[in-house]
Design brief:
Length: 385
């Protein structure tokens, strides 16, 4: 979990800072102190989490493995699409080139046939019969033109043939590349399936090891405490002047924000979980691998794995508002990235110990949890998006 909350310290590095002189300013020294403090809190929280449960480490490793393999699979899919597009363009060139070569060969054949019919003896007889020098000159010019045209056609045929060979070679290369990418895609799909089986086994073992309600309560309470600690650290770490760099107007969009995904709400905000722990966000059920979009413009201040929430992205908006997106299969943004409303920031999954594809979504202002259904568009029969 060595990279878990160190991203919090990186957020200040990722944001633009004013130009400085040779000596560090007081503000810079203060920021360095803040980053050092966050780094200490990060390490402390990480050590505590790993000490509590070996399965946490195993689950984190498996979730991260799935995230990496999913990213590789996405890149391979994009490469396959690009190779297919290049292959189609090359195949489109083949038809006209073949037709052009056929026409040129037919034209040459006609010229050769005409020349053969006339023959060299006929040409000499025609020359010897001419008493008029002007007419003789015209005949020689005409035959010279025919010879040059024939040579020109031969050159065109040679060029067309070379182009055809070049396209065929490029096409063979692209087809070989496509086969290689498809093979790699199949390998990654197999690895991803194996990792998901491993993930489910860890989740089952984890759930079986937490036998009593008291243990579940302690785990849920600690997960919520860790999240609140993380948010408080992020909130304190970001100077006020940097908050003004994000998109404005979050508060004015209450009830108008577009949901980050389409799906069914399976756990509501404020719902009491095992042992009376209150859910400070909501859970939306949807298939794995679906785009998760930021509901508003802002800056990514966290993009990593967190116990209880899996692969999570936190976007900081204006006026202290934050939105949280957990249980992802893959994170597509890094700390410091600027995002626009509707921009894809991750792919849905079941990381963090979930049994099926879902998204944890929460709205915060500082450490205060807010009901997402009050901020996003109306819910219809339990469904959103």
């Amino acid at each position: 979990m060595k990279q878990l909350l160190l991203c919090m310290a990186c957020v200040l590095l990722a944001l633009p800072l004013p130009a400085a002189a040779q000596e560090p300013s007081i503000e810079q020294l203060e920021l360095e102190a803040v980053k050092a403090k966050i780094g200490h809190l990060t390490q402390q929280l990480q050590d505590e989490q790993q000490q509590r449960d070996t399965d946490v480490r195993l689950l984190k490793e498996t979730d991260e493995k799935i995230s990496q393999q999913s990213a590789q699979l996405s890149r391979t899919g994009e490469e396959i699409t690009a190779v297919r597009a290049r292959t189609e363009k090359l195949e489109e060139r083949l038809g006209p080139l073949r037709e052009q070569l056929t026409n040129q060969q037919q034209h040459l054949a006609q010229q050769v046939s005409a020349s053969w019919r006339m023959g060299r003896q006929q040409f000499l007889k025609l020359l010897l019969k001419q008493d008029d020098p002007a007419r003789l000159s015209r005949i020689l010019t005409y035959y010279g033109y025919l010879n040059r045209a024939r040579i020109g056609i031969i050159d065109e045929i040679r060029l067309s043939y070379e182009q055809l060979q070049e396209v065929n070679l490029a096409l063979a290369t692209q087809r070989e590349s496509l086969e290689s990418h498809l093979s790699e895609q199949a390998r990654l799909v197999s690895l991803l399936q194996e990792a998901r089986v491993e993930q489910q086994q860890i989740v089952d073992h984890w759930n079986n090891s937490i036998g009593s309600n008291q243990q579940q309560l302690e785990q849920l309470a600690k997960d919520a405490e860790d999240l609140n600690q993380l948010l408080a650290s992020i909130d304190k770490a970001i100077p006020e002047e940097f908050r003004k760099l994000g998109s404005a107007g979050f508060a004015t969009l209450k009830g108008k924000l577009v949901w980050p995904v389409s799906g069914k709400i399976t756990r509501k905000y404020g719902e009491k979980l095992s042992g009376g722990v209150v859910l400070e966000g909501l859970v939306i059920s949807l298939p794995e691998g679906k785009p998760v979009r930021s509901v508003h413009g802002g800056t990514v201040v966290f993009a990593d794995w967190l116990r209880g929430y899996g692969m999570m992205v936190i976007v900081e908006h204006d006026s202290g508002f934050m939105t949280l997106y957990g249980y992802n299969q893959e994170l597509l943004k890094q700390v410091g990235d600027k995002v626009e409303a509707g921009e894809t920031i991750g792919l849905s999954g079941r990381s963090g110990g979930q049994k099926k594809g879902s998204l944890y979504f929460a709205v915060r202002r500082g450490e205060r949890a807010m009901n997402p259904t009050h901020w996003c568009r109306a819910v219809s029969k339990g469904k959103v998006g």
